[in-house]
Amino acid sequence: MKVLKQKTIIYTVWLGMILSGIEGLQMYNPKTESWLQAHSQARYVILQVLLECGQDFVKVEKIDDPDGTPNLSLTVDRTKILSVGKPAIGKFLGKLQLYRSTADIASAKAMYDKYSAVTSDGENPFLNYRDIVMARKKPRKLFIQANTFLDDSKESVNLKNYEANVEGMIDSWIERFQDDNVDDILEELWAKDKHYFS
């Protein structure tokens, strides 16, 4: 049972990273042919490395949902993570480290630019896939801080949650800092901790 859970966790982490490589296309600007976020670019590079290693380890296919809207299907063969995926990433990182260690910027840039290129060519036209990714983009998730309050008898604590939207964020902030001199309190806390950041 423990081994099954471990394998499931490993598969889930790999699947999440590879999926992030596809979703990261949201951070690619086709007009300027540039990435807007380094982490998204790096995840896309990892996806490209794993697609390149072949052996049907990772597959990305354009499909149509039952309602006819285009979608992407991602398949990762969990039985090949250790035998195909891990060695491919290891080889890529080894090359990258060699280029860094020898200050071979030209080779490192050429390799990284090759893997981070978003084109409409080849078996996986990711520039075309980007339209599908953008059409299915979900709003950014908000984490809104809950507040605790003592009841009137001051014997029990009540937890208050807020809607996960801008209004909920403002309500949470206002109810957390009901004191009029909140700026003074925050400044006092800053002054108290300032020496840790100097």
Brief rundown of the structure:
This protein is of the alpha+beta class and 198 residues long. It has helices spanning 2-23, 38-52, 81-101, 105-116, 126-135, 166-176, 182-193; strands at residues 28-29, 34-35, 58-64, 70-76, 147-150, 157-160.
Shape label: extended
> Which residues form runs of ≥5 with pLDDT under 50?
none
- Given the structure, what is the number of helices? 7
Largest sheet: 2 strands, antiparallel
Rg, please?
24 Å
Percent strand equals 5-15%
End-to-end distance: 50 Å
SSE string: HEEHEEHHHEEHH
Number of strands: 6
- Rounded mean pLDDT is 92
Describe this protein's structure.
The chain has 198 residues and is of the alpha+beta class. Helix content is 52%, strand content 13%. It has seven helices and six strands; from the N terminus they run H-E-E-H-E-E-H-H-H-E-E-H-H. The strands form three sheets. The chain has a two-stranded antiparallel sheet with strand order 1-2. A two-stranded antiparallel ribbon has the order 3-4. Strand 5 and strand 6 (157-160) form a beta hairpin. Helix 1 (2-23) packs across helix 2 and helix 3 packs antiparallel against helix 4 (105-116). The radius of gyration is 24 Å and the shape is extended. The N and C termini lie far apart (50 Å). InterPro entries: Peptidase_M49. Pfam families: Peptidase_M49. GO terms for molecular function: dipeptidyl-peptidase activity; metal ion binding. This is Dipeptidyl peptidase 3. Keywords: Hydrolase, Metal-binding.
